[in-house]
């Protein structure tokens, strides 16, 4: 199996190297047979090729079994005319990686940012190809617009097709967990857009009679995340709501540095940490690579499910368990969790735990 590795910007190269180190250890143990090709995206590519993402990189990506994508300093890129392209957005839209799967859970041995005694174990299923983001609507000629210098308008696209397919992924995941899905929306105000989203989720629910579906207004859901996070298992939401909720959930659960995710399509999957490029700690060996290591574990699990390969699924579980076993020891924690261990040393500990 061939993986495409794109280190990216900021702490990307450090946490990607750490994750690849752990995956190689898992490979040695479970005989997975991964091969790695590297390419540049972000500032490394801009300096060399005048663009943060070459078409060639995007086209080549289709031929791989999986992608490992580092963080990107998208906010610092120049305008698109000057070569600054949003890499994650291009991957999501052009490769149709429509399901951004974002888990957040507390660990009994780690301090969380929640009220004492509260625990969290949830997965946010984020639709990633439409919604408010202007670059997801460009193809239709809609981005943001300014009819006058003093007025700006933002347009959100919601389709039945995209809402139904993300709902289906949420229900499938719920079948493997506690059989509960919560649809997040604001259909009381956005009758058409959120109304269509909610209607789509409800229609897919009929295919999964064993799964209990409820729904919550997005504003109320932030309060519930703080007050009663145990009420959630799988949440499904359109792009923007899910983006905000998942940062809240992962920070509540302990640290953004623990927040792994995948962007999955029907035939291709990309591992990507939930957080940004953390330029404040870049190049200092201070980043917590757990987010990227756990993202890679999710990719390995996704490949395992696609191929019905027990070795891959077991390897994914083992990586997860090795991260937990490492975090359990306070002297093996990175600075974001109050520890002193560096990024590289953390990955060596995880590999040893494997
Ligand atoms: P960007 O512009 O790329 O979004 P950012 O700094 O706005 O970067 P994040 O990268 O998400 O946003 O970081 C928010 C905060 O969380 C920063 O203080 C950062 O150092 C911290 N952080 C994010 N990821 C990690 C990590 N893996 N390990 C340690 N700290 C992290
Ligand atoms: Mg950010």
From TrEMBL:
Official protein name in the record:
3-isopropylmalate dehydrogenase
Tree of life domain = Bacteria
- What does the sequence similarity comment in the record state about its family? Belongs to the isocitrate and isopropylmalate dehydrogenases family.
User: Sorted alphabetically, which Pfam families does this protein's record hold?
Assistant: Iso_dh
Listed SUPFAM superfamilies: Isocitrate/Isopropylmalate dehydrogenase-like
Q: Which Gene3D superfamilies match?
A: Isopropylmalate Dehydrogenase
Q: Which organism is it from?
A: Ottowia thiooxydans
List GO molecular-function terms, semicolon-separated: 3-isopropylmalate dehydrogenase activity
Where the record annotates domain Isopropylmalate dehydrogenase-like, the positions are 2-350
UniProt keywords (A-Z) are: Oxidoreductase
Provide the E.C. number(s) assigned to this enzyme: 1.1.1.85
Keyword RNA-binding assigned to the entry: answer is no
